[in-house]
Specification:
mainly alpha; 2 helices; rod-shaped
């Protein structure tokens, strides 16, 4: 968060130094922030989807392993 704020402040100060009015400088900083957020969201959405799928698969495999263990214990108890 501090890096982001530092970048925003630096950009704002640079815009003001070249005589961009305060409202326009704030708008530019906000637009750049929105653009960066959008790009990051777009770039990571596929990764997030893959992680959700992998988590579901791990849960399913753990459930199957637990079920197999329970069935194995039940069958072993029947054979005694």
């Amino acid at each position: 968060m501090e890096v982001k704020m530092s970048l925003q402040i630096t950009l704002f100060q640079a815009l003001r130094a070249v005589r961009i009015n305060q409202n326009e400088a704030e708008r530019v900083v906000q637009e750049l922030d929105n653009h960066i957020r959008t790009k990051i969201t777009d770039a990571t959405s596929g990764i997030e989807r893959q992680l959700r799928i992998q988590n579901a698969l791990v849960f399913f495999l753990a459930a199957m392993a637990s079920l197999a263990t329970a069935i194995g214990a039940y069958l072993a108890a029947l054979n005694r």
